[in-house]
Amino acid sequence: MWNHLRSLAISRLRRAPVQAPWAGVPDAYRQLPVGRFSLPGNAADWIRERESVSSIVIGSLGDRPPRPPIPAVRTVWRKQARGFTIEKFTFQNCVDSVVPGYIAIPLGITKPGPAVLAIHGHGGSKEGIFGRISSQQNVAERLAARGFVVMAIDNYFSGERRGSGPDGPNASPSTEESSLFKLNLWLGRTLWGMMLRDQQMALDYLVSRPEVDPARIGTQGMSMGSTAAWWLAAIDERVKAVVGAACFTRYQDLIATRGLPQHGIYYYVPGLLRAFDTEGVMSLIAPRPFLAMTGDRDAGSPPKGVRTLEEVLSRCYALYGKPDRFNSVILPNTGHVYSELMKQKMLAWFELFL
Q: Using omega within 30 degrees of 0 as the cis cutoff, is the peptide bond preceding 287 cis?
């Protein structure tokens, strides 16, 4: 019921036209001490500066306890589905949680091939990605049908992990998210950093599978999953191609449109804006292929910010001589959704670059 009500509220809110920048924003918040990302004019200078940008991005995530070399995975069950084998697995993240996930292996694989780590959105789960419950994020079956190994895990406060936070099994999802956010701050961590750490552990498992070519791994998602996909690619170069549906977001423009409530508290990290906005994070993906798809009525991704990101990232990819590896698609009369057209573009992108 919580998911249904939340989805209705989000869909109503995010189909509305995006607010004009700075309308209604108090004067005190119009001149914030935000750093400016300056992209050098040549590739050599950017490659030298990239390390310091990466350090700032990773530092904003707080402490992230070391990961084991390969997660200790337990296979719960294995079943044959239409055109692929699906396995349910769990691993201990070695901090506070058992992480459940699914992996789909296309039938007839004879050598290592491409794989996609699919990341669910806020309020979603691996069940939606794998079509085990109704969800617009259902992509696993169609990816597997094209020959991709597909993996997805449940994030904190989501799916089978609900009720495993510090407030115990009776906490609501929103309370659990808030409590995890607070507790991690006390420990010098961020909830977002810990969520990305879990996705890196999923990658650790994915690259260990004999069916997977470690040089051909992509990640994709919608909403929170989209944000996680491009953040993960920024901090982990094992990701070779990225697709994000919705949440191609620049934070200053979110402030300007009074859009901070558009994203859950999990999303926020300390100090990043003192250095630069999300163009600094996304620049670390270049020159690996990156497709962003955004509805023009998605209040979580203000249009002015989308245009700024497009301009900066286009220049960044041009520095590498790879302008065709970045593409931003703005869909008209579209809100915060993962439409059929977006899914078709996602498949085509991975088929082209993986």
A: yes
Measured distance CA(249)–CA(304) in Å, rounded: 10
Question: Distance (Å, rounded) from C-alpha 220 to C-alpha 242?
Answer: 6
pLDDT cut 70: percent of the chain above it = 95
CB atoms within 10 A of CB 80: 10
pTM of the model: 0.94
Q: Quick check: 132 pLDDT over 60?
A: yes
Q: Find the helix or strand (DSSP H, E) in which 352 lies.
A: helix 340-353
Q: How far is CA 146 from the centre of its chain?
A: 22
**Which of 13, 299, 226, 3 has its CA nearest to residue 123?**
3
CA distance 150 to 153: 11
Quick one: tokens of 197? 């750490």
Angle formed by the axes of helices 191-208 and 173-186, nearest 10°: 100
- Between strands 149-153 and 98-106, the pairing is antiparallel
Q: Is residue 288 over pLDDT 80?
A: yes
CA distances from 314 to 205, 232, 287 (A): 33, 20, 10
Pairing of strands 84-92, 113-119: unpaired
Angstrom distance (rounded) from CA 197 to CA 66: 9
Q: Which two tokens stand for residue 257?
A: 């449109």
